[in-house]
Amino acid sequence: MAIITKNTGQEKAQIVVLGMTVDVVRKDIKNLHLGVYPPEGHVRVAVPWHVTDERVRLAVISKLAWIRKQQADFKQQPRQSEREMVTGESHYFMGKRYLLEVIERTGKHLLELNGNHKFLLYVKPNTSIENRQLVLNEWYREQLKERIPDLLSHWQEKIGVVSHDWGVKQMKTKWGSCNIAAKRIWLNLELAKKPPECLEYILVHELVHLLERHHNDRFRAHMDHFMPNWRLYRDMLNSSPLGHEAWKY
Asked: What is the pTM (predicted TM-score) of this model?
Protein backbone atom coordinates (compact mmCIF):
# COMPACT_ATOMS: atom_id res chain seq x y z
CA MET A 1 0.00 0.00 0.00
CA ALA A 2 1.32 3.41 -0.91
CA ILE A 3 2.12 5.89 1.84
CA ILE A 4 1.81 9.32 0.28
CA THR A 5 3.23 12.63 1.40
CA LYS A 6 3.15 15.77 -0.71
CA ASN A 7 5.98 18.22 -1.20
CA THR A 8 6.19 21.24 -3.44
CA GLY A 9 6.12 20.05 -7.04
CA GLN A 10 6.28 16.33 -6.29
CA GLU A 11 4.56 13.44 -4.57
CA LYS A 12 6.28 10.65 -2.63
CA ALA A 13 4.99 7.14 -2.02
CA GLN A 14 6.19 3.68 -1.13
CA ILE A 15 5.22 0.40 -2.78
CA VAL A 16 6.37 -3.16 -2.15
CA VAL A 17 7.75 -5.21 -5.04
CA LEU A 18 8.57 -8.88 -4.35
CA GLY A 19 9.04 -8.08 -0.67
CA MET A 20 11.27 -5.05 -1.40
CA THR A 21 10.20 -1.55 -0.36
CA VAL A 22 10.54 0.94 -3.21
CA ASP A 23 10.36 4.73 -2.90
CA VAL A 24 8.36 6.27 -5.73
CA VAL A 25 8.64 9.99 -6.49
CA ARG A 26 6.23 11.53 -9.01
CA LYS A 27 7.19 14.90 -10.44
CA ASP A 28 7.46 16.92 -13.65
CA ILE A 29 9.89 14.76 -15.62
CA LYS A 30 9.56 12.97 -18.96
CA ASN A 31 11.10 9.56 -18.26
CA LEU A 32 11.33 6.92 -15.54
CA HIS A 33 14.59 6.88 -13.54
CA LEU A 34 15.52 4.00 -11.25
CA GLY A 35 18.36 4.21 -8.74
CA VAL A 36 19.88 2.11 -5.96
CA TYR A 37 21.44 4.02 -3.06
CA PRO A 38 23.80 3.38 -0.13
CA PRO A 39 24.24 2.27 2.52
CA GLU A 40 22.03 -0.81 2.12
CA GLY A 41 20.86 -0.34 -1.46
CA HIS A 42 17.38 1.11 -1.08
CA VAL A 43 15.54 1.52 -4.38
CA ARG A 44 14.11 4.83 -5.56
CA VAL A 45 12.14 5.36 -8.75
CA ALA A 46 11.37 8.84 -10.09
CA VAL A 47 8.54 8.94 -12.63
CA PRO A 48 6.26 11.37 -14.47
CA TRP A 49 2.92 12.06 -12.82
CA HIS A 50 0.92 9.78 -15.10
CA VAL A 51 2.95 6.60 -14.51
CA THR A 52 1.03 4.00 -12.49
CA ASP A 53 2.31 1.89 -9.61
CA GLU A 54 1.89 -1.19 -11.77
CA ARG A 55 4.24 0.22 -14.39
CA VAL A 56 6.75 1.02 -11.65
CA ARG A 57 6.51 -2.58 -10.42
CA LEU A 58 7.21 -3.88 -13.91
CA ALA A 59 10.21 -1.56 -14.26
CA VAL A 60 11.64 -2.74 -10.93
CA ILE A 61 11.10 -6.41 -11.81
CA SER A 62 12.79 -5.93 -15.20
CA LYS A 63 15.87 -4.50 -13.43
CA LEU A 64 15.81 -6.93 -10.51
CA ALA A 65 19.11 -8.67 -11.32
CA TRP A 66 20.89 -5.30 -11.63
CA ILE A 67 19.29 -4.06 -8.38
CA ARG A 68 20.41 -7.17 -6.47
CA LYS A 69 23.95 -6.74 -7.76
CA GLN A 70 24.06 -3.09 -6.65
CA GLN A 71 22.73 -4.03 -3.22
CA ALA A 72 25.32 -6.79 -2.87
CA ASP A 73 28.09 -4.37 -3.83
CA PHE A 74 26.96 -1.89 -1.15
CA LYS A 75 26.90 -4.61 1.51
CA GLN A 76 30.47 -5.60 0.64
CA GLN A 77 31.72 -2.02 0.67
CA PRO A 78 33.85 -1.27 3.76
CA ARG A 79 32.38 1.05 6.38
CA GLN A 80 33.88 3.01 9.18
CA SER A 81 32.62 2.15 12.65
CA GLU A 82 30.72 4.84 14.52
CA ARG A 83 33.10 7.66 15.37
CA GLU A 84 33.91 8.21 19.07
CA MET A 85 36.26 11.16 18.44
CA VAL A 86 38.97 9.89 20.81
CA THR A 87 42.76 9.73 20.61
CA GLY A 88 43.99 6.91 18.39
CA GLU A 89 40.92 6.84 16.15
CA SER A 90 41.42 6.76 12.35
CA HIS A 91 40.05 9.52 10.13
CA TYR A 92 40.54 10.26 6.44
CA PHE A 93 41.44 13.34 4.44
CA MET A 94 41.95 13.41 0.67
CA GLY A 95 42.20 9.64 0.59
CA LYS A 96 44.87 9.39 3.31
CA ARG A 97 44.49 7.91 6.79
CA TYR A 98 45.25 10.06 9.82
CA LEU A 99 45.27 9.25 13.53
CA LEU A 100 43.34 11.58 15.80
CA GLU A 101 44.95 13.09 18.89
CA VAL A 102 42.57 14.92 21.20
CA ILE A 103 44.12 17.70 23.29
CA GLU A 104 41.96 19.26 26.00
CA ARG A 105 42.61 22.92 26.80
CA THR A 106 40.76 26.17 27.32
CA GLY A 107 40.21 28.48 24.39
CA LYS A 108 38.90 28.13 20.87
CA HIS A 109 38.21 24.71 19.40
CA LEU A 110 40.66 23.95 16.62
CA LEU A 111 41.78 21.16 14.33
CA GLU A 112 45.09 21.06 12.50
CA LEU A 113 47.26 18.59 10.64
CA ASN A 114 50.51 17.44 12.23
CA GLY A 115 52.68 16.22 9.37
CA ASN A 116 51.24 13.53 7.12
CA HIS A 117 49.81 11.19 9.71
CA LYS A 118 47.99 12.95 12.54
CA PHE A 119 44.99 15.20 13.24
CA LEU A 120 45.39 17.38 16.34
CA LEU A 121 41.98 18.27 17.79
CA TYR A 122 42.07 21.01 20.45
CA VAL A 123 38.87 21.17 22.51
CA LYS A 124 37.73 22.35 25.92
CA PRO A 125 37.55 19.71 28.66
CA ASN A 126 34.36 17.60 28.62
CA THR A 127 33.47 18.60 25.05
CA SER A 128 30.83 16.17 23.75
CA ILE A 129 31.40 13.71 20.91
CA GLU A 130 28.91 15.66 18.81
CA ASN A 131 30.77 18.95 19.26
CA ARG A 132 34.13 17.31 18.55
CA GLN A 133 32.63 15.96 15.33
CA LEU A 134 31.35 19.44 14.46
CA VAL A 135 34.88 20.83 14.73
CA LEU A 136 36.15 18.13 12.36
CA ASN A 137 33.27 18.63 9.92
CA GLU A 138 33.80 22.38 9.80
CA TRP A 139 37.49 21.79 9.09
CA TYR A 140 36.53 19.42 6.26
CA ARG A 141 34.14 22.06 4.91
CA GLU A 142 36.86 24.71 4.94
CA GLN A 143 39.27 22.42 3.11
CA LEU A 144 36.75 21.70 0.35
CA LYS A 145 35.86 25.37 -0.01
CA GLU A 146 39.53 26.17 -0.52
CA ARG A 147 39.90 23.57 -3.28
CA ILE A 148 36.63 23.89 -5.18
CA PRO A 149 36.97 27.42 -6.69
CA ASP A 150 40.10 26.60 -8.72
CA LEU A 151 38.64 23.28 -9.86
CA LEU A 152 35.37 24.95 -10.77
CA SER A 153 37.10 27.69 -12.77
CA HIS A 154 39.17 25.15 -14.68
CA TRP A 155 36.32 22.78 -15.53
CA GLN A 156 33.72 25.44 -16.33
CA GLU A 157 36.06 26.84 -18.97
CA LYS A 158 36.87 23.38 -20.32
CA ILE A 159 33.25 22.18 -20.46
CA GLY A 160 31.84 25.53 -21.56
CA VAL A 161 29.24 25.97 -18.82
CA VAL A 162 28.82 28.28 -15.85
CA SER A 163 27.46 27.40 -12.42
CA HIS A 164 25.77 30.37 -10.76
CA ASP A 165 26.22 28.99 -7.28
CA TRP A 166 27.76 26.08 -5.40
CA GLY A 167 27.95 24.78 -1.86
CA VAL A 168 29.04 21.96 0.43
CA LYS A 169 26.65 20.04 2.66
CA GLN A 170 26.11 16.62 4.18
CA MET A 171 23.99 14.44 1.92
CA LYS A 172 22.65 11.00 2.74
CA THR A 173 22.41 9.35 -0.66
CA LYS A 174 24.34 11.43 -3.21
CA TRP A 175 27.91 12.54 -3.73
CA GLY A 176 26.67 15.64 -5.51
CA SER A 177 23.61 17.24 -7.05
CA CYS A 178 22.82 19.85 -9.68
CA ASN A 179 19.80 22.14 -9.82
CA ILE A 180 19.77 22.70 -13.55
CA ALA A 181 17.25 25.56 -13.54
CA ALA A 182 19.18 27.54 -10.92
CA LYS A 183 22.57 26.26 -12.15
CA ARG A 184 23.43 25.45 -8.54
CA ILE A 185 25.78 22.62 -7.56
CA TRP A 186 26.00 20.91 -4.18
CA LEU A 187 28.90 18.67 -3.17
CA ASN A 188 28.85 16.14 -0.34
CA LEU A 189 30.99 16.99 2.68
CA GLU A 190 32.18 13.35 2.65
CA LEU A 191 34.25 14.14 -0.47
CA ALA A 192 36.83 15.79 1.80
CA LYS A 193 37.75 12.28 2.95
CA LYS A 194 38.14 10.82 -0.53
CA PRO A 195 41.07 10.96 -2.98
CA PRO A 196 41.30 14.31 -4.83
CA GLU A 197 40.33 12.65 -8.12
CA CYS A 198 36.96 11.74 -6.61
CA LEU A 199 36.12 15.36 -5.77
CA GLU A 200 37.11 16.40 -9.29
CA TYR A 201 35.05 13.60 -10.85
CA ILE A 202 31.90 14.56 -8.95
CA LEU A 203 32.35 18.23 -9.82
CA VAL A 204 32.72 17.39 -13.52
CA HIS A 205 29.74 15.02 -13.31
CA GLU A 206 27.50 17.79 -11.96
CA LEU A 207 28.77 20.39 -14.44
CA VAL A 208 28.06 18.03 -17.34
CA HIS A 209 24.45 17.91 -16.14
CA LEU A 210 24.25 21.52 -17.33
CA LEU A 211 24.75 20.08 -20.82
CA GLU A 212 22.61 16.97 -20.38
CA ARG A 213 20.05 16.43 -17.63
CA HIS A 214 19.86 12.63 -17.79
CA HIS A 215 22.40 9.83 -17.38
CA ASN A 216 22.02 8.73 -20.98
CA ASP A 217 24.39 8.02 -23.88
CA ARG A 218 24.85 11.73 -24.54
CA PHE A 219 25.82 12.34 -20.91
CA ARG A 220 28.33 9.49 -20.96
CA ALA A 221 29.78 10.74 -24.24
CA HIS A 222 30.37 14.16 -22.65
CA MET A 223 32.06 12.51 -19.68
CA ASP A 224 34.25 10.42 -21.98
CA HIS A 225 35.26 13.56 -23.86
CA PHE A 226 36.03 15.81 -20.91
CA MET A 227 37.31 13.21 -18.41
CA PRO A 228 38.28 9.94 -20.16
CA ASN A 229 39.17 8.24 -16.85
CA TRP A 230 35.89 9.10 -15.11
CA ARG A 231 34.88 5.43 -14.70
CA LEU A 232 38.11 4.75 -12.84
CA TYR A 233 37.43 7.65 -10.46
CA ARG A 234 33.80 6.53 -10.02
CA ASP A 235 34.94 3.03 -9.08
CA MET A 236 37.58 4.48 -6.74
CA LEU A 237 34.88 6.50 -4.99
CA ASN A 238 32.43 3.63 -4.78
CA SER A 239 35.03 1.27 -3.33
CA SER A 240 36.27 3.64 -0.62
CA PRO A 241 34.95 3.28 2.95
CA LEU A 242 31.53 4.77 3.61
CA GLY A 243 31.50 7.19 6.53
CA HIS A 244 29.26 5.95 9.33
CA GLU A 245 27.58 9.27 10.08
CA ALA A 246 27.00 10.35 6.49
CA TRP A 247 24.86 7.41 5.39
CA LYS A 248 22.30 7.16 8.17
CA TYR A 249 18.63 7.41 7.27
From this structure: 0.70
